[in-house]
Structures are given as structure tokens and as C-alpha cells.
Design a protein that fits this description.
The complex is a heterodimer of chains A (230) and B (490). Chain A is an alpha/beta fold and 230 residues long. Helix content of chain A is 33%, strand content 27%. Chain A folds into two domains: 126 residues, Rossmann fold; 76 residues, no CATH class. Chain A is built from eight helices and ten strands. A six-stranded mixed sheet of chain A has the order 6-7-8-3-9-10, with helices on both faces. In chain A, strands 2-1-4-5 form a four-stranded antiparallel sheet, with helices on one face. The longest helix of chain A has 14 residues. Chain B folds into two domains: 221 residues, no CATH class; 238 residues, no CATH class. In chain B, 75% of the residues lie in helices and 0% in strands. Chain B is built from 24 helices and no strands. The chains are: A alpha/beta (230), B mainly alpha (490). Chains A and B meet through helix 2 of A and helix 1, helix 4 and helix 11 of B. Chain A: InterPro entries: AAA+_ATPase, ABC_transporter-like_ATP-bd, ABC_transporter-like_CS, ABC_Transporter_VariousFunc, P-loop_NTPase. Chain A: Pfam families: ABC_tran.
Chain lengths: 230, 490
């Protein structure tokens, strides 16, 4: 078990935004977090990453509370929103910086980026722009590629498909499905097609609570559609 | 790692969006910094000669010793007001493979890059080498330097700690201010004396230099406390903003103005709900004290309204000047939305006039306590008030249509020059000079009251012509709106 969430709660004022009793995540699972706006998906992710202090409960990464030790940073990569990017750097500078945190040399980084040429569609590298000057879709690409570059055991992406053009969405799906090894992936999405396609487990949340938690099969998409149209 | 962080910081400075366009501002700021440094160096080197003249009846070293803590008390208050919390800059690093302790040491080091930490050296070192060293020898000299360095560090981290604490608890602010006010009052009424205390402390350092080690220990302690606090509370939402319940409000008194009132209410909410605009409003109340600088007894007795005019204009019009200098830019984040919404531009402009008029009226009413100094001042302020709402508003709004700089209103105001451009400096000239030029001929002919009447009547005529000015500005705004919107989108 790589991740365990125990009695996790976040309360703002008198509103409980997240309230998750117990969730266990095994290594290699690809989990899709699905829920309407305000379901608490992003707040939940932020607590996984120790960016928000939970009101109650804990997140255990490889058995250790993420609030107490930061060993989890060694094997966890994430991209939630543009706030994660250092927007006054060029993409190259940003990749090299992230690479250096994981002891990758400049050559390693460029070798790694070479395989993303297709994903970047020639718009990111050598563009002579700072990250802040990119469109939201291209900023997303930088963040996702930087997260994948860290060869994480846990990958957390918030709405990775949003703002991406159709071609890139398909490429990203391919990337996520093919990504080798025993990476545990956590993504949230409003696109039911994409999540059921990519993920082998779906966690459905509403008002901060887990409503359903199940393995995907051929009926999952229908099930989700009927739930959300009700 | 620290080096990488710092190089990112310098990149963030040099690549900041406004850098290229506001080089003028940078140069002016640079000159200011240089000016203050030169002042500090000058004061430092002239202290051995000036101190005996200022405090003629005491020993030079006693005076110098007395000044040190005084300086740092002042330094503390200034820092409390001006020193920024370096918090937001760490967001992109928190989720990465970077140890918490490294992020904290970055925050700690970053806070040292402050002019406040440089001034004491320029100010005190010359005297220490010129007078203390010959009198007390090498060991005492070193301890003096260590002590001064340590107090600067102590203040640095204490202020950060207090500021971080106060974000989570308003009570601390109140208590802190009361303590400081208490000390100030005790000093003012000569119950205690910072100077005497300071002299006592540094005399002790001079005669028993090892006492000086207490300072670095204190500095280290506060540094530790601050770091520990950060380690336990490294959550940006807790470090940078208060969590309070947001409620919907309705300003009933604005409803009678219809559409215009709604727009004014919208802007009022914008002002009250953002840090930068809110602090500019608070600043406005501080400027109410401006009168004590300008309303000097000789000027009042001699009916020299020309000398006091600037003070009066600035005080009663402070909200117009300070808020108006960034007009439209306050709304830059949602300017496209405003343009595409069903808003009549004329109403949009009228709403601004309405807000300015209300704000200026309130401030003028508050400022009327200067009537206790002399009732004449009420006449002066009335003239200034009429000028402000009649013509000042027109200048500000007209110049605002030329302002295309985006403004991020979530950031604090002190030493934040984002959105500043030449327009802001230009603004002050016509604004302050017009009423003074109107007054001067009458002042020279020794008809001060006629001068006031001319200024007041001028303001009143412009006020009556407001419909005309609204049309002029609306036309200009309609022409400029694409350029403004484009600038705001950057």
C-alpha cells in the first residue's frame, strides 16, 4: 500500500469541504477522482501534497504522515495549477531546475525532453518565451511534462485534460496509459470518457465525501453517466 | 539550493512584466535608495562632530550610546509598516523534492535583503571606528559592531515573526500597537527614557565587552523561534491570508443612484475586499495628520493660504489622488468582463465621480477638526474640497484613460510600484498647481480671502459643469478602451 488516507477532514468556517474516512491505494493503481465542482477534489489533492493543513486526520505516504516528514517528496510529482509553475522562467530553465532537484544533468533533461517533441507540438521548447506568456493549455503541458520527468512513484494531476486541444488530450491519455513501471497515478477530471479510459479505479466524491469507489469495467462509463445525469 | 532560489529571485525581478516599461520608476527608486544611503553615510561620518553640537551638555559617547536603541526602536516601527513577508514566492517550490528546512532557510535569507539591514552599518560604523575604538580598545569595538549587527537581525526576525503571528490573530496586532504606544507615551511624558536606557546598555558593553554576547544570543533565539514557527506552519493559505467568512453585502445608501449606484457599490466592494486598495484607503486617513505639517501658526496668523493650500488640497482630496492614480487599473483583472457586460459607459464614469465625491466629503468632514486650530482653516478646506470634487476628479479621470498598466490588487501597497508609470507623476502637477496658480495673484495682492473664493468658485463652476465633463471623459474612454483593455490583459 503506497497511500493511505485516514479520517481526513477539512473544515472552512462551518463548511466541511473534505471528509474522507478511509481510502487505501495500492502501488500501480491509476485512480480517477470524479465529482462536480465544489466536491473538494482540489482541496483533497492539496492535502495529499501537504499544501493545506487538514482539520483532522492524516495522509500516510508509504506509511509516513506527509505533514511530519518530507521523504514523500522524493517519489511524488504533481501539477495542480499554474501556481506550481515558476512563471518567469523559460520552459527550458524550469525543466532544468526540476531536473536538478532529482539529480538530472542538463543533458539528461534535454534527452528526456526529446521524447516529448510530439507532445509539445513544437510550441514549447526554444520558443523564446517565459512560461507566463504561454496559453493555459501550453502551461499545462509544461507542468505535466515536468511532473512526468521526475519519474515519480506517485503522480498527482488536477484536471490534466482541461485547456488541452483534442490532439494533445489523446496524446496525454497515451502517455498516462503507457507510462512504464509501477507508478501510482491520481487524476481528477470532469471528462468521464477520459477518466474511464485511463483509470482502473474510480473514486466518486460529492460534497467532500466518497460516494463510490470501484474498479473500472465496460459498464463504468454508463454507470457514471447515469449517476451524474440523475 | 539556496543559490538556485536566489537566482530565481533575481530573475523574477529582472524579468518582471513592468520592468521594461517602468524603467523611469526604477531609476527614481534607485536614486531614492542612493539618496538615503548617502544620507546614512553622511550622518555616520558627521556624527562625531554633530553630536556635541546637538547635545552640548553631555559626553559625545553618551549621546551616541543613547541614539542606538532610539534608532532601533524607530527601525522596528518602520519595519512593522514596510517590511514585506516573503511568503508567496515559495508556492512553486512546496510540492517539489525540496526539503522543508531548505525552503525555510530560503525565506530566512531572503528577508535579510532589506535596506533596513544595511543602514545601521553606514550610520554607526564610522563613529565606532572614529571614537569608540580609540576610547575603549579593540575588544569593545568588535562587541559594539556585533551588538549593532545583532539588533538589526533581531529586529528583522522579530518583525517577521510578529507579522506572521498577526496574520492568524488580529489580537496580537492590537496588543503590539498598545505596547508600542505605551512606550511612546512613557517616553513622551518623560517617565522613562529610551536614550538613558540605551546609554546604560552600551556603557555596560564598553566597560565589560563580553556583555555584548547577549545580543547575538537574543538574535539567534528570535531567529530560531521564527524558523520553528515557519516549520510548523508552512501552509501558504495560513501564512498569507486570513480565513474569515465572506458575506454578501448591500450598500443601501447607494441604491438611490440607480445603475450608477450599483456600479459604485461594485467598486466599493472591490476597494474593501482587496489588500492594496484597502491600504490606500487607510493611508488616506493617515494623511489627515498632514495638516499638522502644513498648518503652522505663523502661516495661519498671516493668512498665508498659499503655503497651506497644498496641504489642504492633498488632505481633502487624498482619496481622489491615491485611489484615482490607478483608476481603471484597479479593475484590470476583470476589465474585459466590464467592457462586454451590459454597462453604459456614461454610468461607469458617473459611478467613479460619485465614489470620489462621497469619499472626499467624508474626509473633509473628518478634517474639519482643524477648525479648532483656527476657523479660517475651515474656509481653506472648503475651497480645497470644492476644487477637489469639481476639478480634481476631472483631471484624475481624464488621465486615467491614458493609463494602460495592469495592476495586481491582491499585493500589498507599500513599496509596490506595479502599475506605476509616468502618468502618476504627471498627475500631481496639474492637480496641485492649478489651485495654487489660481490663488497666487490674490495672495500677492494681499487679498487672501478673495483667493480662496476664486478657488472655491472655480471648483463650484466645474462641479456644475459635471455633466459636460462626464461626456468628455466618456468619449475619451470609448476611444481608448481597446488600448486600455489590451494593456490590462498582459
Amino acid at each position: 500500500m503506497i497511500l493511505e488516507i485516514k479520517n481526513l477532514k477539512k473544515v472552512y468556517g462551518d463548511k466541511t469541504v473534505v471528509n474522507i474516512e478511509h481510502v487505501q491505494i495500492k502501488q500501480g493503481e491509476t485512480i480517477g477522482l470524479v465529482g462536480n465542482n465544489g466536491a473538494g477534489k482540489t482541496t483533497f489533492f492539496r492535502m495529499l501534497l501537504d499544501l493545506i493543513r487538514p482539520t483532522e486526520g492524516e495522509v500516510l505516504s508509504k506509511g509516513e504522515n506527509v505533514m511530519l516528514k518530507d521523504d514523500w517528496k522524493n517519489y511524488t510529482a504533481s501539477f495542480l495549477d499554474e501556481g506550481f509553475l515558476i512563471d518567469y522562467l523559460t520552459p527550458e530553465e524550469y525543466f532544468i531546475f526540476i531536473g536538478s532537484l532529482h539529480d538530472l544533468s542538463v543533458a539528461d533533461v534535454s534527452a528526456y525532453l526529446a521524447q516529448y517533441a510530439e507532445f509539445f507540438n513544437g510550441e514549447i521548447l526554444n520558443s523564446g518565451k517565459y512560461i507566463r506568456d504561454f496559453s493555459k493549455g501550453n502551461q499545462n503541458k509544461v507542468g505535466i511534462a515536468a511532473a512526468l520527468m521526475q519519474k515519480p512513484e506517485i503522480l498527482i494531476l488536477d484536471e490534466p485534460f482541461a485547456n488541452l486541444d483534442p490532439t494533445t488530450q489523446i496524446r496525454l491519455k497515451k502517455l498516462l496509459k503507457e507510462h512504464p513501471g509501477n507508478m501510482t497515478t491520481f487524476i481528477s477530471s470532469h471528462d468521464l470518457n477520459h477518466v474511464t479510459d485511463v483509470c482502473n479505479r474510480i473514486i466518486l466524491v460529492e460534497k467532500g465525501q466518497v460516494i463510490k469507489d470501484f474498479k473500472t469495467d465496460e459498464n463504468t462509463l454508463k454507470e457514471l453517466e447515469s449517476y451524474f445525469s440523475a | 539550493m539556496l543559490k538556485t532560489f536566489l537566482s530565481h529571485q533575481s530573475k523574477s525581478f529582472w524579468r518582471s512584466r513592468n520592468k521594461g516599461s517602468s524603467i523611469a520608476t526604477q531609476i527614481i527608486l534607485g536614486f531614492f535608495m542612493l539618496y538615503f544611503l548617502v544620507l546614512a553615510v553622511g550622518a555616520g561620518f558627521s556624527m562625531p562632530y554633530l553630536l556635541p553640537k546637538i547635545f552640548a551638555n553631555q559626553n559625545v559617547i553618551t549621546s551616541f550610546n543613547g541614539l542606538i536603541l532610539y534608532y532601533f526602536a524607530f527601525d522596528f516601527i518602520m519595519r512593522l509598516q514596510l517590511q514585506e513577508l516573503p511568503t508567496l514566492s515559495i508556492i512553486p517550490y512546496l510540492h517539489l523534492k525540496i526539503k522543508r528546512s531548505q525552503i525555510i532557510s530560503f525565506l530566512n535569507v531572503k528577508s535579510l535583503f532589506s535596506a533596513f539591514n544595511v543602514w545601521p552599518f553606514f550610520l554607526f560604523l564610522p563613529f565606532i571606528f572614529m571614537r569608540i575604538a580609540p576610547a575603549y580598545g579593540a575588544f569593545a569595538t568588535v562587541m559594539y559592531i556585533i551588538a549593532i549587527f545583532s539588533i538589526a537581525i533581531f529586529n528583522n526576525y522579530l518583525v517577521l515573526y510578529i507579522k506572521r503571528k498577526t496574520i492568524s490573530n488580529v489580537l496580537y496586532t492590537a496588543v503590539g500597537l498598545i505596547i508600542i504606544a505605551g512606550f511612546a507615551a512613557l517616553e513622551y511624558y518623560k517617565v522613562i527614557s529610551i536614550m538613558a536606557a540605551s546609554d546604560f546598555v552600551f556603557k555596560a558593553v564598553a566597560s565589560h565587552p563580553y556583555i555584548g554576547f547577549a545580543f547575538p544570543i537574543a538574535a539567534f533565539l528570535i531567529f530560531k523561534i521564527n524558523s520553528d514557527f515557519l516549520r510548523k506552519n508552512l501552509y501558504t493559505e495560513e501564512l498569507s491570508s486570513k480565513q474569515e467568512k465572506k458575506v454578501s453585502t448591500d450598500y443601501a445608501f447607494l441604491n438611490r443612484f440607480g445603475k450608477v449606484g450599483e456600479l459604485a457599490a461594485l467598486e466599493l466592494k472591490l476597494i474593501l475586499r482587496h489588500k492594496r486598495s484597502r491600504s490606500s484607503v487607510i493611508l488616506g486617513f493617515f494623511f489627515l495628520l498632514y495638516g499638522f505639517l502644513f498648518y503652522k501658526t505663523p502661516a495661519i496668523d498671516g493668512d498665508k493660504f498659499g503655503q497651506m493650500m497644498f496641504g489642504a488640497i492633498f488632505m481633502t482630496g487624498v482619496s481622489i489622488i491615491i485611489y484615482g492614480q490607478f483608476m481603471f487599473a484597479w479593475q484590470s483583472a476583470h476589465f474585459d468582463g466590464l467592457l462586454s457586460a451590459k454597462i453604459n459607459f456614461k454610468d461607469f464614469i458617473k459611478a467613479k465621480f460619485l465614489l470620489f465625491t462621497i469619499a472626499s466629503s467624508i474626509i473633509t468632514l473628518l478634517a474639519s477638526f482643524y477648525g479648532f486650530l483656527s476657523p479660517k482653516l475651515l474656509l481653506l478646506q472648503l475651497a480645497a474640497y470644492l476644487y477637489n470634487i469639481g476639478f480634481g476628479t476631472v483631471i484624475v479621470l481624464y488621465l486615467a484613460t491614458l493609463n494602460k498598466k495592469r495592476l495586481d490588487i491582491t499585493k500589498a501597497a507599500s513599496f509596490n510600484y506595479q502599475g506605476t508609470s509616468a502618468t502618476q507623476f504627471l498627475l500631481m502637477f496639474p492637480y496641485a498647481l492649478t489651485p495654487i496658480l489660481l490663488y497666487v495673484p490674490f495672495g500677492m495682492m494681499d487679498m487672501p480671502y478673495w483667493g480662496l473664493i476664486v478657488v472655491a468658485v472655480f471648483g463650484l463652476i466645474m462641479l456644475l459643469m459635471r455633466g459636460f465633463w462626464v461626456n468628455v471623459i466618456t468619449a475619451k474612454f470609448e476611444k481608448q478602451r481597446y488600448k486600455i483593455a489590451e494593456g490590462f490583459r498582459e
